[in-house]
Structures are given as C-alpha cells and as structure tokens.
C-alpha cells in the first residue's frame, strides 16, 4: 500500500487537494489496498481554503506518517508561505519516494530548495515568478505536468487530476487509470507535454467584433485559407492594419494563432478518430503529412503517429 500524504495550509486551493485525492480514492475502489490517503497541517488543526471551505487534517506534521507520495497543493497560501510548511518540506520532502506539486505548490517546493537543478512547471501565471525567484530551476511554462526523476510538478488546478491519473497509471496500469477517468468523467488523454491551455484560451479575446469573428472562423475552419490576406478581407481591414490590430488585441500574431488552432485540431482528431494521418493533415489545414509532422515535433516533441500510439485510449471490449 502506498501512503499519499497531502500537505494542508491556510488558503490552499481546494481543488488542488480534492482533485488528486478523488483520483487516488478511485484507485482504492478499483483495487483494494492500492493507496492510503492522509492529510496533515502544521499543527493538526483545520485549515480554511481560499474559497472558504474548511478542511480537517488527519495529522499534524509531527505525527504524519512517512509518505510514499508527498503531494503539495497550491493556492493563495503559497504566495506568503507559512515557514512551518517550507521548513517541514525541506526536511521531509527528500524522504518521500515521490514528490508531487499541484499548481503553485511548486513555489513551496522551490522555497524549500527541492527543485534546484530540476526542470519544473507551475500555473502559467506564476512561471515567470518561479524562474525569477529561483534561477537554479529550469522552468518550463508550457506542459501541464513535468517529471524530473521522482519529482513531479503540474500546472494550474485541474492539471493535478491529469498528473494523479498518470501516477495511478504508472502504479497500477492503464486499465485502472482509464476506469477512474471514466468514473470521474474526465479524459485520460492529456499528456504531460500538452500545452497548458488551448489556442482560444492562450489568446485574449479581441475587443472588436470583426476580429472576434475572425478568431471564431479560424477555430471552425482550420483547413481553409487562413493567410493574413484572406483573414484581413474577412475582417474588412487592410492586411497591415489587420495584423497589427490582431496582435494588439489578442496578444499573438495571426500566424501564431493559426498554428495553435491547427495543432489543437489535429491532436484532437488523432485522439478521437481512426482517421489516417494524411486525412487528418488535410482536415487540420497542414496540407501534407510532412508539414503536420514538423509542427508536432517542434511543439510536442513527437511525430503524429507516435502521439497517437501514446495518448489515444486503447479500445475496450
């Protein structure tokens, strides 16, 4: 049995705690004796989450059991951390067989010196802070989770569920993780190197209606002519004015936005359909399998066929 110990503190993000806990609890339902889930706060008294929910820990730090997996959630409480938390992590973190952070929990691990010399991620809004405050950490702002040895860091909030599912898959196999994902009605499909947010979330929504309509058109027609000339005509602007306005209002160039939309569309087709690579490359607007392959390797580090083999759920019978 693997003991999963979750660190609690005031102003913790509740979903950072409950999301992974539900995954590990689901594994216990799938196979008895898989995990023992425990929580601990500095003095063993209840903590209040950032949303106002009260959580009652099982232990104080002093009497907490030795964990197999030590899970450190994030939340507002990581911005001005309780020194009792970072001091305890500094001493006990290296003893865990597996050290895991969710969201800005990485800030606590960094403050305890446990990420120095490692690659790590956190919520996209705090990656710059993590890199600035801790230059010894190789901060990667793109993935939803990162593994460096036995240290795992994840991005914002719900990515803790993705990481917990990946850990269950490592411990108990894909069938267990898939059964839990189905029970929780979430996808067992998000690889760690998937971007933290979709093209639509990565870009700001344009203020002007013609530009918003162009954003929506790109999303719905990735296989169309999405050149600046074509898109600017749709927005009834000159190409130069359109390109400048689009970047100003969305935070990225039209070309970059199109790249993200096409990659996301192709990824979903690889995950959700049995369509061939050539067919998908046309549907996503790449034109040729080679063009799609280059985009996948550049952004995701794997070719489309490899991506499909690794991340498409196996058929069930």
TrEMBL record:
UniProt keyword terms in alphabetical order: Transcription, Transcription regulation
InterPro entries, per database record: Class_I_gatase-like, DJ-1/PfpI, Homeodomain-like_sf, HTH_AraC, INH-QAR
Chain ranges of the HTH araC/xylS-type domain: 212-310
Record keyword Transcription regulation present: yes
Keyword flag NADP: no
Molecular function via GO: DNA-binding transcription factor activity; sequence-specific DNA binding
Transmembrane segments: none
Protein name: Transcriptional regulator
Organism: Streptomyces albiflavescens
């Amino acid at each position: 049995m693997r003991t999963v110990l979750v660190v609690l503190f005031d102003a913790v993000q509740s979903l950072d705690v409950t999301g992974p806990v539900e995954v590990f609890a689901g594994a216990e339902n799938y196979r008895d004796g898989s995990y023992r889930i425990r929580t601990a706060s500095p003095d063993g008294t209840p903590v209040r989450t950032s949303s106002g929910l009260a959580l009652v820990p099982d232990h104080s730090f002093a009497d907490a059991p030795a964990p197999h997996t030590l899970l450190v959630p994030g939340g507002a409480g990581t911005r001005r951390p309780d020194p009792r938390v970072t001091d305890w992590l500094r001493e006990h973190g290296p003893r865990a067989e597996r050290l895991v952070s969710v969201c800005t929990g990485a800030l606590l691990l960094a403050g305890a010196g446990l990420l120095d010399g490692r690659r790590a991620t956190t919520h996209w809004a705090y990656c710059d802070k993590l890199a600035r405050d801790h230059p010894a950490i190789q901060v990667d702002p793109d993935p939803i989770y990162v593994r460096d040895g036995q240290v795992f860091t994840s991005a914002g909030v719900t990515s803790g569920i993705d990481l917990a599912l990946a850990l269950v898959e490592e411990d108990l196999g894909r069938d267990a993780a898939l059964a839990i994902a189905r029970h929780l009605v979430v996808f067992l499909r998000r690889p760690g190197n998937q971007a933290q947010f979709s093209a639509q979330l990565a870009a700001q929504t344009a203020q002007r209606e013609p530009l918003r309509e162009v954003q929506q058109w790109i999303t719905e027609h990735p296989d169309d002519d999405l050149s600046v000339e074509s898109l600017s005509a749709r927005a009834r602007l000159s190409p130069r004015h359109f390109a400048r306005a689009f970047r100003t209002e969305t935070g990225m160039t039209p070309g970059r936005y199109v790249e993200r939309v096409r990659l996301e569309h192709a990824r979903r087709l690889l995950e959700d359909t049995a369509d061939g690579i050539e067919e998908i490359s046309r549907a996503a607007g790449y034109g040729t399998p080679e063009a799609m392959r280059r985009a996948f390797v550049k952004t995701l580090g794997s070719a489309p066929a490899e991506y499909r083999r690794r991340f498409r759920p196996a058929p069930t019978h």
